[in-house]
């Protein structure tokens, strides 16, 4: 009972086909998850302005008086007409206070 080698089809192991089908099934969700994670951790935080403490150049746990002094100092510098602030800096400080 000799069989020809052309009629024999090697059987694919079940474990290999299972792994390949699993990888195919989870490839696109993994890519979408990675993209959403990147968007939430990198893109969104850059869209929001810094904290008002950073914009005013003071410590995070400053008192109300220090915050008011820093804002008055910054606004008097800009209102004096000596230095013209950029629009972006003006918007950042206006949104923070």
UniProtKB/TrEMBL annotation:
Question: Could you tell me the keywords of this UniProt record?
Answer: Membrane, Transmembrane, Transmembrane helix
**Where exactly are the transmembrane stretches of this chain?**
26-44
InterPro entries in alphabetical order:
DnaJ_C16_autophagy_reg, J_dom_sf
Q: Does the keyword Transmembrane helix apply?
A: yes
Q: Which PANTHER family does the record associate with it?
A: DNAJ HOMOLOG SUBFAMILY C MEMBER 16
Could you identify this protein by its name?
J domain-containing protein
